[in-house]
Amino acid sequence: MTSLPSLRAEKTPSRSAKDLVFRIFMFAGIGIALGSLATLLANVIIEGAPRLNLDLVTSMPSARPRRAGIQSAIFGSLWVVLTTAAISLPTGIGAAIYLEEFARRDRWYNRLIELNVQNLAAVPSVVFGILGLAFIKRGPLGLGSTVITASLVLSMLVLPTVVIVSREAIRAVPDSFRQGSLALGATKWETVRHQVLPNAFPGILTGTILSVSRALGESAPLLMLGALTFITFNPTGLDSQYTVLPIQIFSYISSAKQEFRPLAAASIVVLLAVLLALNAVAIFLRNKYQKRW
Amino acid sequence: MIPEISLQPSVGVRRRMLVERVIKGVLAAMAGVTVVTSVLIVVALVRPAISFFGDVNFLEFIGGVDWKPLFKPPHFGVWSIFVGSLWVGSIALVVAIPLGLGAAFFLSEYASPRVRSIVKPVLEVLAGIPTVVFGFFALNFVNPNLVAKLWPVGDVGTYSVLAAGLVTGIMILPTVASLAEDAMASVPDALRQGAYALGSNRREVSTSVVFPAALSGIVAAVVLAASRAIGETTIALLAAGSKAQLSGNPGEEGQTMAGFIGFAGIGDQATGSTGYQSIFAVGALLFVVTMLLNIASIRVVRRFREVYE
């Protein structure tokens, strides 16, 4: 009687030991990543719990920890992020359409733009702050510490990411759609407008929500633009002085008074809640409109 | 009689062609904004940096270890904050490379689709945590509860380079994990199946087949993560302290290049003062270092990528 040979990899003691080590190595990676996230969340929630109430969002920042809140920071963040979206989304999506649909790959300037977008996406955010300090806050534009200064700088910061994610969404639209449209006599732009963009829209939306939500959490470039001041009023326009959530949190963390720590933690919980909500919306849209061609 | 046929485009077609050309121009201009941004960054950094080196000896800048640009008398030895950045960057990589690769192997080679669909979004959440929150975590939790209790050398104060580096490592971990996983996922299954057929088990396939085949993508991921760690400002600013010093002990406080830029930026220096210009000189150095890393990362991918059809 012949027994069938086993097709599984043979088990030897040294193999089993190495397998175990490798498993520990992998689970350490996942475990520490997830564990840090859990610890971080638990830390801010526990520390911030006593201050997590409606007073936090209805009060203005103050030098007295008991009465201080983050109302002007919430409104400031809204102003800055919406203005940033209004500037960076049309520009970024337009650039993505150009690179995907119109640009000829064999021209050197198109390759330069592509390389430049890739490189710009990895420039440290504080460098964009330096750019804003030299040209927008002071210097030629001289707009001061205003909502529009912050929005222009953050727009340049998120632009490369918006371009990259929009290109991916546009590339995912099958070529047969384009060819069908062109064969019926549509021009390139008509094809883009009526076939490519409507089909790429969900992907563009998901990607751009995620890239603009980055602007909501950004602090380093705004520190360079003089945002770290006491603002106890909500912005009234683009030329208004402002503070934003990450900057207000920074200011509460770096305050000499220890009583500001719970306030900082509670403000972090608010910021994270808004970011998670944006993430959830993006994931929901992705799942709802995801198409397979 | 044969009617004459005009080969000229009709008025309608000509209008459509014009619209087409205008729109193409507008879209190209939008793409050009990204190039203008890069040019502006270079101009913004270079001009004040040049006048900075008119006031400060270049050799003192590059060779000195005493960094007190906002004091009187000022000292401009960039070495101490350059080394500060290297410390934070290296500590972050020591944390992020093994943990990120472990996570990538797990997600790409071991996890079931169900586990993957839970773990991956959670990693994305970690990637989306703002740096100011990580800074709070480093200052409020990691430094007092881990670094101060476990670091064996010297006394650990309120701030430490080590806490900033560790938390920066956690910040870049998802970058390493997700880019490395992308590289592993693009290794064709035929290679894995070949190795299984020769009697390899899952671990051997991961380490001897998938890892070498994905190496260029993994190296690019690590280099990109290093660039992000060196450029990280807010964590360094909140957790590493603001005392620039050349020290071999990461349990002490220290300042990084990015941390100095943020620190001086908050201080609202008078335009044209040497303190103001030092922001740009350090910014130019930081920009050059991170750009070299970014270009290296892009080139590694282009050059050594194994293309499988």
Describe this structure in words.
The complex is a heterodimer of chains A (293) and B (309). With 293 residues, chain A is an all-alpha fold. Chain A contains 11 helices and no strands. Chain A has helices spanning 13-48, 54-58, 71-102, 108-120, 125-137, 147-171, 175-183, 188-217, 220-224, 245-253, 260-289. In chain A, helix 1 (13-48) crosses helix 11 (260-289). With 309 residues, chain B is mostly helical. Chain B folds into 2 domains: 11-55; 67-304, MetI-like fold (Orthogonal Bundle). Chain B has helices spanning 11-55, 58-63, 79-110, 113-127, 131-150, 161-185, 189-197, 202-213, 215-231, 234-240, 257-266, 274-304, and strands at 67-68, 75-76. The radius of gyration of chain B is 26 Å and the shape is flat. The chains are: A mainly alpha (293), B mainly alpha (309). At the A-B interface, helix 1, helix 3, helix 4, helix 5 and helix 6 of A face helix 1, helix 3, helix 4, helix 5 and helix 6 of B.
Overview in brief:
With 293 residues, chain A is mainly alpha-helical. In chain A, 71% of the residues lie in helices and 0% in strands.
Number of E strands of chain B: 2
* Average pLDDT score of chain B: 89
Strand portion of chain A:
under 5%
The CATH homologous superfamily of chain A is termed: MetI-like
The largest sheet of chain B is: 2 strands, antiparallel
CATH topology call of the largest domain in chain B: MetI-like fold
CATH homologous superfamily of the largest domain in chain B - what is it?
MetI-like
Helix content of chain A: over 70%
Q: How would you characterize the largest beta sheet of chain A?
A: none
Beginning-to-end CA distance, first to last residue of chain A? 53 Å
CATH architecture label of chain A = Orthogonal Bundle
How many strand units of chain A?
A: 0
CATH fold name of chain A = MetI-like fold
* Biggest chain-to-chain interface with counts: A-B, 91 and 96 residues
| Beta-strand content bin of chain B | under 5%
Radius of gyration of chain A: 25 Å
Query: What is the CATH domain class of chain A?
Result: Mainly Alpha
Low-confidence stretches of chain A: none
Strand order of the largest sheet of chain B: 1-2
